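So, can you check?
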Amino acid sequence: MTISYPNAIARSSFRRRRFPLLVVGLVVAVGWVLPLVVGVASAWQAEEEAGAVAAADIVADSAARPVVRLRLESIVHPVVADFLVQALREADQMGAEVVVVELDTPGGLGSSMHEMTAAIQEAATPVVVYVAPAGARAASAGFFLLMAADIAVMAPGTNTGAAASINLGGEDLHETLQQKVEEDSRAAIRAMAQQRGRNAELAELAITESKAFSATEALEGGLIDFVASDFENLLEQLEGREVVKIEGREPRRLAVVGAPLRELKMTRVQKFLAAIIGPNIALALLSFGGLALLIELYNPGSILPGVVGAICLILGAFGVSMLPVNYAGLALIALAMLLFIAEIKVVSYGLLTVGGVISLVFGGLILFRTSEPALRVSVGMLISVAIFALLAAGGLSYLALSAFRRQVATGAEGLLHRRAQVRTALAPRGKVFVHGELWEAVSEVPVEAGTEVEIVGVDRLTLRVRPRHATEPETQP
């Protein structure tokens, strides 16, 4: 019986050629996905350890109102806003004495900031915004949160302010619209400062002149109520302090010393979503997802790169959708991926790869249309992504070029110049044995059974052979 092309040797050769690609895929997964997962897991663990009392009340007096404590330590975005709104709602439902929001943020989205300030002002429970620990900041959108608080407190060594032109989306605006947004921001900060009895004129300077204040300067300027060294000192200074939550009503005297403490934390889903919304993580996910799909396209059937790449692209798209994205930046990133694919298909001696890296870098630079520092991709991340993309695309191109130069080991071309064993005499037709299979063969001269012949051509399922001299070496693929 005649057996066609596929054979054990060809399958073995195919597996050997796929092995480097699988190694590349594993290296990519370990180099990018593992640090990302470890980073998110570390953030979760840090959050768990930072709160000495997670999801439990430390009860000193069962009849006392609890003190609710939560921490916001990220850019201001929708996930953080949802967490704060839910926490304030829960505090109102449990009848909390006060809510302490420990804040450390470089700023963020104006739309989320407006949602958070509105929730603070509407909450029935007094809200204390505490910028801590030392080295923390409440910049840009964080300054608005500080001014919206019923009681504004800072730790020594912290700073606040620099809130110029906070708009709803975070993007840069034309001059006329920029002026409107600035006037709206000035009115908002002035209204909150006046409502809380703070220095409205000085607060406006944070917008008009991007002025920033240390804890001491904010206290002397009448922007905050006091400075507290730590949480225990904060509670001591809050004890007995009167708060007018609703104008026209009797002031509420706080009793927090010895009160039960309840700490509210983000759910694991909220922590994960908050981690991927950052501009650096969003760019890393998009870049890695594109390169992983590139590996899948180069080596169809690998599965792992395709699945991981699709997941990363979807998560990256989610992160980008939460931020003021510039579609020109997305287009440049997509162009970079196309150039990487073209490098595999076209021998450009690295020019397409270099062009792809340049496109990727410029795409990352303009990916988010904002002057808000917290919403920009860091230079370090751009350099890391560019180097990784260069190595990954260059490695794939090298493997593709090596595959193109390698002699074909399967199909008709893979049989040429191979030696075969004559099983039935060729006069001129007979059968030969090659690669573990019997083939129909034809020879221009008679050949006896048992003789070695060389394959010189393939006509469909018939081999053309000729007698082979014993001194001739076999051509290897």
